[in-house]
Every structure is written in C-alpha cells, then in structure tokens.
C-alpha cells in the first residue's frame, strides 16, 4: 500500500501501520464531506484510533440526526469516487497561521500555538480540503474502500470541561469490504451482549441521575459480585495473603507524600475536615503503606502479601461514563507485596501464575505487555532500570511472550499489563503488576535485615480483576448474561406445570435452598411455555425444573438446560448433588 509522507515523498506502508493510515485518511475524507455539507463547520482534532476514527467538529447550533450522518457517509463515498490526489506540504509557523486564519480555522490556530517552537508544521490537501496533519496518508481518495460512520457524541475541546462542547463524529474503516462486514457483524453481536441492556433485563444493576458514574447493585447483581469476591478471597488465603481495609478519606499530606497530589490531582475528589484538606482515595496503596509502617518488620516476615478490596473514587468526565466499564466509584482488588530485591522474580512469578489461573477459570485468553517509564514519573534512572529489569527477568524466566509498551508505566514504576480476550475476540486490559521503588522510599518504610540493619523494602502493586465492577461488566458481555452455575444469581428455577403440582414444586424448592442452591419458585398462574422462555431468555437461569404430574409421582425433576434447550429427567437427589458440585467446584 502506497502512502504519502509530510515531506512529499511516497513510499510503501509498513504492514502493521496500514490500518492506522487508512483510518486517518478516512477522518480527513469525512471532514471534507462535513465541510461540503456544513460550510461553517470548524474542525478540532481528527485522529485514527484503535477501533476506527473520529473528528471533533464545532457545528455551531446545528444538531445532527442519524439521517445527517447518513448524508455525510454518502458524501464521503462521492469524494472517494472522485479519486482526488492527496498531497502534502510544509509551511513555516507564520505561513501556517496565515493559512489557517484565511480558512477561519480557529481550533487549528490554537493548536499551532501549542506546538513546540521547532515543530514541523505540515498539511495535507485533497481537492478543496486542507488539513494540518503529520501524516502519512493514502495517495488518492479512491484508495479508501471500506468505511462506515457509526455514531456521534459530545467531546470537550482538548478534553477540558471548561472548554466548548464539540460534536464528535465516529466511524470505522478497513482495508476491504469483507473486513468491514466482519466487523459490523461483531458490532451487532456486541450490541446484543451490551452489559447495560442485559443488566436491566436480569435486574443486576442500575444507574441514576442523582449519582452519575456511581452504580447501584441490585439484589441479583450483588450476588454475582459477592461470588467473585468469595472466589478472590479463597484464592488469596491459599496464596498466603492477609486482608486489610483502609479508610476512604485521608489527609492531603498523605497524598503529597505518595506523589498522587502532584501527579493525579485532577482525578481526585477532595473535601475539608476541621479546616484541613482531605482527599477521597483514588487508590489504596498509600493506606497500605501506613498499614505496613504501623509496626517494625524483620526480613524473616518478608514477603508480606497484603490484599485489600478497597472502594476508590476517581473523577471521570461525564461524557466518558459507560455502564460498569467507566465509573467514578469502584472496588479495586488490590494487593501490595513488600519484599527484598532478591524476592522480586519469585513474587512476580507467583502473581503471574495467580492471574493466569483466574483468567483460565473464565475461559479468557490473554497477552502480556511490559510498560516502561513515562515522561511524568518520579525516582532515579537507576531505580527505574532495576525495576524494569526485575519485571523483564521474571517474564523471561517464565518463557512468557510479551510486547514492550514504551512510556506507559505508572508514574512510580514500570508494570506488566494483562490484556484478556473475550468470547467474541475483543480485548480488555484488566490485570496489572507494578513494581515500585518510590513509595517505600517516600514513606521511609523499612525492615531489619539479618545483620540487624534497616533496609528499604520493594513494593509490588497488583490487581487481578482490576475493577470488580468493570470485570463484572466484561463477564456479562463475555457470557452474554449466561453465567456459569457458580456465578448465576438464580441457579435453578422451579416451574410447576399447574397448580396440581405446586405442592411438589414447593418441596423441590425447599430441597434446593436447604442445599445452598440459589433457587426461585415460579408459582404464577402463567402458561408453562411463557415461564420457560422468560427464565431461559431473559433471566438466563442455567437450569429450569419443569414439574408435572409424572415428576411429582416419581419424585423426579425434568431439567431443561439453558444453553442447549434440551431436557433430561433425573431424581431430585441426583440433580441436587450435581448442582452443588458445580457450584462448589466453580465449574465454568
């Protein structure tokens, strides 16, 4: 695939960059179509993204409808058929500003002012449309073969809520129509699995305008959440973790010591108590440090593995909130491991094995990334190098394949990120292992070594689920609401065919609940077909027990399987034993 660079040269595009170039060019062609249809449109940013492209546009008082998005897409198709050559040129800062002034591009002018003095300011042009861009791009508009506009939303200029709200128009683009069709089918399947829709149908959670970004868990959703927490606790007790709980609100001085006040302040909620500044914790680690420092420690105690299911609050823009995926309050399954330098590889390996076990339990595949020092960081070069090498050594010794994600570490240390793949091929970043030399130093944490000398411990921050709320949202979509028995809010639904078998149905219900099975008796005066459809398709109950006169006479149950739709008759005792085993062994 040929591309044109900002210096005017044309070359072959590296295979791994093709989609990015296609999508970036699609953003420019979409902007040209918008400008033709809305001549007063003023353009902000229009990048390619991991899943497609978008352009943030100031349309004044104009509000777009779905029909308008269709018109923009048709105009894009027309531009592609025109086969306009795409050319690039470079201007000096003064020339660039003059051009943008002439074209009345106020957002581009502001962008130029934000660029470094020595920045190369380049432009791309197709037909009458000119856009400031670093490129590269396709060489002709006809080379864009497969695209679709998907939606619109709001977005603040520069992501700042104090700036004007712009219209963000999103699209997708692919190298071929076959790839586009495959993606559209995936989107259709993803829409069916939307955790917000399924959450409403199954009565798992709700949201309210009184608390945007603060989810409410309903009875059935809390059952699933608690099942995840019970599993987490069982694993961590087995692996030698202790569990603590730290306060939700702590003094500003703590957050200054940890570095969060300087590096994370915009994401924190604050309050005043007794005229002092306090912050609602966005992370659990500073509280974990106070727990460690509450008494002296010997090298014989290390490693100390300290877990916390901590509720944290982080400020997210209202427009970014999304069901359970992006919230302002969530439970983080944190753990902080305090250890010696020599224990780094073994502890990292232990956490990797734990994360691997959990993800396999749910049927997730995953890939691993090693993220290195970001620009906004704290600590010495030596500490960062030693920490990064410690993570690298553990991964290498385990023979794990991993990609290096330069500059994406936490501000206090490098990290290993786990990106899991769900049942329809989407990836989610959940588990992470972060190695931290800085926090123990900032808090002057110590242990006494074998020579009775004080030493600084090394700290691991790690999560397995990440946010339990977000992980639950992922699981809802991964399973399409069809949870395995051990997670299902209702594991069994007892469905008497008529009032004549209600007495036996009540006996079965009592036997289920006595065995610890989450069971519901549906004694409504409804047709059995309706009851089955509701239990199977809406509530997604794993097992439905259809009880007629024969089952009552024989003391059996006819078990309808949610996933296969098939039925099997067995003794009540055999079914109870089977379900208890699936629940106890957490069979997925």
Structural class: alpha+beta
Overall pLDDT level: 94
The number of distinct β-strands equals: 30
* Global outline: globular
Relative helix content: 25-40%
The whole-angstrom Rg is 29 Å
Largest sheet: 8 strands, mixed
Question: What portion of residues belong to β-strands?
Answer: 25-35%
Question: What is the CA–CA distance across the termini?
Answer: 45 Å
Which sequence of strands runs across the widest sheet? 13-17-18-25-22-21-19-20
Low-confidence stretches: none
SS element count, helices: 18
How does this structure look, described?
The chain has 588 residues and is an alpha+beta fold. Helices cover 36% and strands 27% of the residues. It has 18 helices and 30 strands. It has an 8-stranded mixed sheet. The chain has a 5-stranded mixed sheet with strand order 27-26-28-29-30, sandwiched between helices. Strand 23 and strand 24 form a beta hairpin. Helix 1 packs across helix 2, helix 3 runs antiparallel to helix 4 and helix 6 crosses helix 14. The longest helix is centred in the first third of the chain and has 20 residues. The protein is globular. It starts with a strand and ends with a helix. The model has no long low-confidence stretch (mean pLDDT 94).
């Amino acid at each position: 695939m040929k591309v044109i660079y900002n210096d005017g040269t044309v070359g072959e595009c590296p295979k791994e960059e093709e989609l990015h170039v296609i999508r970036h060019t699609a953003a420019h062609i979409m902007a040209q179509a918008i400008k033709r249809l809305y001549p007063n449109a003023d353009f902000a940013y229009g990048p390619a993204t991991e899943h497609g492209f978008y352009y943030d546009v100031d349309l004044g008082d104009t509000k777009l409808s779905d029909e308008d998005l269709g018109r923009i897409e048709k105009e894009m198709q027309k531009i592609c058929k025109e086969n306009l050559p795409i050319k690039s040129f470079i201007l000096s800062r003064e020339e660039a500003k003059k051009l943008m002034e002439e074209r009345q591009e106020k957002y581009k002018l502001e962008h130029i002012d934000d660029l470094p003095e020595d920045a190369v300011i380049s432009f791309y042009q197709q037909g009458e449309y000119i856009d400031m861009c670093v490129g590269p791009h396709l060489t002709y508009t006809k080379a864009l073969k497969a695209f679709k506009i998907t939606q619109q939303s709001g977005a603040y200029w520069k992501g700042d809520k104090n700036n004007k709200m712009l219209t963000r128009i999103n699209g997708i683009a692919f190298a071929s129509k076959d790839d586009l069709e495959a993606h559209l089918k995936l989107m259709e399947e993803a829409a069916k699995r939307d955790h917000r829709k399924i959450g409403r149908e199954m009565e798992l959670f709700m949201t309210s305008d009184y608390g945007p970004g603060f989810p409410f868990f309903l009875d059935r959703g809390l059952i699933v959440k608690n099942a995840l927490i019970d599993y987490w606790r069982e694993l961590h007790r087995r692996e030698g973790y202790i569990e603590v709980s730290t306060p939700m609100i702590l003094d500003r001085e703590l957050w200054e010591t940890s570095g969060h006040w300087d590096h994370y302040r915009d994401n924190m909620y604050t309050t005043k108590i007794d005229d002092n500044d306090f912050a609602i914790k966005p992370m659990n680690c500073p509280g974990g440090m106070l727990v460690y420092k509450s008494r002296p420690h010997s090298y014989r105690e290390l490693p100390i593995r300290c877990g916390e299911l901590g509720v944290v609050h982080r400020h997210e823009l209202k427009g970014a909130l999304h069901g359970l995926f992006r919230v302002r309050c969530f439970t983080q399954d944190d753990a902080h491991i305090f250890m010696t330098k020599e224990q780094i590889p073994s502890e990292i390996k232990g956490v990797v094995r734990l994360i691997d076990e959990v993800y396999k339990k749910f049927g997730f595949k995953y890939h691993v990334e090693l993220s290195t020092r970001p620009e906004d960081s704290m600590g010495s070069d030596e500490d960062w190098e030693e920490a990064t090498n410690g993570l690298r050594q553990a991964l290498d010794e385990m023979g794990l394949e991993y990609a290096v994600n330069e500059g994406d570490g936490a501000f206090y240390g490098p990290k290993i990120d786990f990106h899991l793949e769900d049942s329809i091929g989407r990836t989610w970043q959940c588990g992470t292992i972060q190695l931290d030399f800085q926090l123990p130093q900032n808090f002057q944490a110590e242990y006494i070594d074998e020579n009775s000398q004080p030493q600084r411990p090394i700290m691991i921050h790690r999560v397995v689920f990440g946010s339990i709320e977000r992980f639950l949202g992922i699981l809802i979509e991964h399973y399409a609401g069809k949870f395995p028995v051990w997670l299902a809010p209702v594991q069994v639904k007892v469905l008497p065919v008529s009032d004549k078998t209600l007495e036996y149905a009540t006996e079965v219900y009592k036997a289920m609940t006595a065995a610890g099975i989450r069971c519901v008796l549906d004694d409504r005066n409804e047709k059995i077909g309706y009851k089955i459809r509701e239990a199977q398709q809406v509530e997604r109950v794993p097992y439905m027990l259809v009880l007629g006169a024969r089952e009552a006479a024989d003391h059996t149950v006819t078990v309808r399987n949610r996933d296969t739709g098939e039925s099997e008759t067995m003794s009540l005792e055999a079914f109870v034993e089977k379900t208890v085993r699936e629940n106890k062994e957490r069979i997925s």
